[in-house]
Amino acid sequence: MTNPNNTQPRFLLREIAHRAMLDRGLFPDFPAQAIAELNRIAGPASSSTGVDHDLRSLLWCSIDNDDSRDLDQLSVAESLPAAATKILVAIADVDAVVKKQSALDDHARQNTTSVYTVAAVFPMLPEKLSTDLTSLNLNADRIAIVIEMVFAADGSLQASDIYPALVRNRAKLAYNGVAAWLDAKGPIPPAVGAIAGLDENIRLQDRVAQKLKSVRHELGALDLETVEARPVFVGDELKDLAASGQNRAMDLIENFMVAANGVVAKYLASKKSPSMRRVVRTPKNWDRIVALAAERGSKLPIQPDAKALEQFLVSAKSTDPLRFADLSLSVVKLLGAGEYVLQIPGQNAPGHFALAVKDYAHSTAPNRRFPDIITQRLLKAAMAGTAPPYSNAELDSLAKHCTENEDAAKKVERQVEKSAAAMLLESRLGEQFDGIVTGASDKGTWVRIFRPPVEGKLSRGFDDTQVGQTLRVRLVHTDVQRGFIDFERVI
User: Fold this and answer.
1) Are 406 and 109 in contact (CB under 8 A)?
2) Which of 252, 42, 72 is nearest to 145 (CA)?
3) Domain of residue 446, residue span
């Protein structure tokens, strides 16, 4: 790598991320006032006020990324008569420590989200909070907001409740290890085997989650599978980018979070409280999705139909799994971005087209997302029967701000991913790779090589290429600072 200052790759990427955040109006560093406020916080929230439920004896566990330290949720299952199951989801009570209009809250409100770049995490809240005092850490007693859901054997929701409780994380688990074990491709995670009954509890959670997933997809929830390239560092040296995708443990958590977020949205509506909903509107580019399906020999209705689109996606994945990630990416782009909107009680909710749910409020990641802190405060007011802590005008303004800054954060993350990919490939100029065309427009033609899973612009030889076409390319240019990668077609 061309690096006149001999900066280690990880630190150079961090500098790129730092600059990219500032360029997009995000603050990578905490202000002095917030740090001073942080230093005055002696410990986690006291468990002595307003908590009537002590659920520390339950087999709570967290399942997250291998390197996650900001633990927002725990889950546990309980078998009930008639093949019903109670699922409990505990959400970290961040509001108990981070008070509205405090300096820490002001910073979180400005950024609205943690920014996860390949080189470093820029947390929304300082790590003393997000990975310690407001995190549901292993063997730590914590106050949480518990979302209780009872599901019938067919996956339908029979009853629900929300209340504060005292909880204790009994096992800190990682997606990859749990997924391999559930799929009988790996050993039982040591932390699971060490606690009597936890193995069967997680298997029960998995069975319920799989049923919830099946029900959602029958209703039209979309099975989308995009390729994500995670960096492989050895020390501070970037050695590779490895493809990662959805697995069974991720499905478990995702399905519980979708269900919990739906319960929260309906609870607030039942209390006549305004809320901030997460929506993906009915796609305006449906005609282009119809054309995309037609190119693959399938016919979709003229009017947007999530169930028909899901059936097409399932068929496409079975027929051509190699290109499914790129088809998914195209559909994601055509569906349009998610957004936050004010939901006033009694008004029609736009819903979430991709998840096939009508009521959906982000509430399950308050250490990482500011909308979830807002929802947590609205929930507490609703449970207490007091006035909402935000006016409708405030919520409307915050919804727009959170949407804009979430988009900015994603652009920062993508920019740093591109810089990392350029860094990884810059010593391989002239080499040839097999790849697939992922996009073609007036702005250019794009190709993703298979190993490493990196996308770049096809600067020469793009005439007559089609999206989904496989071809051989040569690497001709990289620019680490700008995240540019250029290929030419090998004739």
Assistant:
1) no
2) 72
3) 429-489
Q: Is residue 3 part of a domain?
A: no
The number of beta carbons lying within 10 Å of the beta carbon of residue 330 is: 19
Residue 289 and residue 283 in contact, taking contact as beta carbons nearer than 8 Å: yes
90 and 113 belong to one structural domain: yes
pTM of the model: 0.91
Amino acid at 320: D
Identity of the residue numbered 431: E
Tell me, yes or no, whether 276 and 402 share the same domain: yes
Domain membership of residue 94 (yes or no) is: yes
Same domain (yes/no): 18, 44? yes
465: CATH: 2.40.50.140
Q: Which residues of the chain have pLDDT under 70?
A: 1-7, 47-49, 227
Same domain for 177 and 115, yes or no, is yes
Is 346 among the domain residues?
A: yes
Question: Do 153 and 212 reside in the same domain of the chain?
Answer: yes
Asked whether residue 213 falls in the same domain as residue 320, the answer is no
Other Cβ atoms closer than 10 A to 449: 22
Taking the C-alpha atoms of residue 174 and residue 462, their distance in angstroms, rounded to an integer, is 42
Determine the pLDDT at residue 82.
95
Tokens representing residue 155 in the block? 């996956």
